[in-house]
Amino acid sequence: MSEQNLTITDERTGKSYTLPIENGTVRAMELRKIKTDTDDFGLMSYDPALMNTASTKSTITFIDGNKGILEYRGYPVDQLAEKCNYLQVAYLILFGELPNDEQLAVWTHDITYHTFVHESIKTLMQAFRYDAHPMGMFISTVAALSTFYPEANKVDDAADRLAQIKRLIAKVPTIAAFSYRHNRGLPYVYPNNELSYTGNFLSMMFKIGEAKYTPNPTLERALDVLFILHADHEQNCSTNAMRAIGSSRVDPYSAMAGAAAALYGPLHGGANEAVLRMLSHIGDTRNIPEFIQQVKNGEGKLMGFGHRIYKNYDPRARIIKRAAEDVFKVTGRNRLLDIALELERIALEDEYFISRKLYPNVDFYSGIIYQAMGLPMTMFPVMFAIPRTVGWLAQWQEMVTDPEQKIARPRQIFVGPRRRDLAK
Ligand code: CMC
What is the largest CA-CA distance in the chain? Predict the structure, then answer.
């Protein structure tokens, strides 16, 4: 018997089955051949929360959670964060290779010249209540974009797909900044095509009276790093939503609105806000031992620690920690950093966290940086959605062009009542 097979004996029938093993997996549809008799539907696998189910083959992002490795198209994320800007990495994630100088110039120009939104989008956003949550505005506005580009439903047309991809990557910073300005009661600032992707975003966020806004190069660079670290993370909750919705062949704007909605949840893109609340609640480094004891007693979690995939230091957290120091040189030190550093030091020496392999994740430091930049907590999920746009779109494109994929439609185990008749 080749080691490429799995042999299963069904004790109900005594029959044996040989299932091929490919890439460390067996195809769930192979189980369907295992039947008690010809009328039997066949065996299924049961996997709530898809803990052990590969839903796709992918060439985009590799993660080894035990070793703390994260690579986009084979490049370690720390090298990309050090040497590239966000648009270079976006190109890599989408097209598989880093752009040469000429390709980068064209790509940067294409993105830069799609940053404006239709005036009706602005009017639509202005209709939200003065205190609308920016993420709610972001999700709704991304969905609304589909009505401006009806051709976007031609998802099998490569040129058409690329046009929507460019539009979305270009317009999400504008929508994000408009939602922030709306929340603050400030006039919306139009894009400035002379600035970089992150420089323009800072301008749309923070320009007040000046004729020309000059972004601080340290903050511009720190945002590039943060955007690179958040660009993709393989089959996470929101990406899975993007693929599932897109599998119905709906346009990418509608699919991405659904993905952004998934990101909005506190267990996903909302965790950095929870970290900030936790650090504020602790209030002082002296209170940390007591807080740690409460966590160990099961009275709450250490937010920003632990990960479904990483059972080692999240490589993104390490890089973000360095970026935080750079940002604080410009903005002044966020007093919550001292609490975070001490909390991390104590937790990493504590048997409770060591034995459970709980390490800081990407959200442990990102909120502290965003707060130092002057962003309200409600903007944190939006700051995650801007760079994740490229990951969602690359994964969507991979799904749409994958001949093995169909409309996503899981099975269920029905445990409710079977047919019963109404009383006569
Ligand atoms: N603080 C204290 N204990 C924890 C924590 C934590 N942050 N995370 C896990 N544990 C414990 C948990 O109680 C369990 O202990 P026991 O074995 O005694 O029951 C053990 O560690 C295993 O945890 P789990 O809940 O089975 O792990 P999971 O893979 O289901 O959960 C997680 C992963 C990220 C939801 C969880 O670690 C958590 O809630 N962390 C805090 C929230 C957070 O920081 N989320 C951001 C995730 S990264 C950003 C993103 O990708 O969106």
Answer: 81
pLDDT, tens only, 66-75: 999 999 999 9
Residue 69, helix vs strand vs coil: strand
Contact criterion met (CB below 8 Å) for 247 and 406: yes
Residues 6+ away with beta carbon under 8 Å from 348:
354, 359
**Could you identify the atom of ligand 1 that is nearest to the CA of residue 301?**
1
pTM value?
A: 0.93
Q: In sequence order, what are the beta bridge partners of 5?
A: 20
Could you tell me the two tokens for 58? 């992918």
In this structure, the residues whose C-beta lies within 6 A of any atom of ligand 1 are 236, 267-269, 271, 295, 301-308, 356, 358, 361-363
Residue positions annotated with a catalytic role:
268, 307, 363
Instruction: Please state the atom number of ligand 1 nearest to the C-alpha of residue 236.
Output: 51
Structure confidence by residue, pLDDT tens digits, 262-305:
999 988 888 888 899 999 999 999 999 999 999 999 999 999 99
Helices and strands of the chain, counted as H and E runs = 18, 5
| Protein residue with its CA nearest to atom 36 in ligand 1 | 306
Q: Whose CA is nearest to atom 18 of ligand 1?
A: 356
Long-range contacts of 260-265 (CB under 8 A, 24+ apart): 260/135, 260/138, 260/139, 260/142, 260/385, 261/139, 262/237, 262/238, 263/237, 263/238, 263/381, 263/384, 263/385, 263/388, 264/135, 264/136, 264/139, 264/381, 265/237
For residues 214 and 200, what is the distance between their CA atoms, to the nearest angstrom?
Answer: 9
Which among 234, 302, 305 is the best mutation to test ligand 1's pocket, defined by most ligand atoms within 8 Å of the CB? Answer: 305
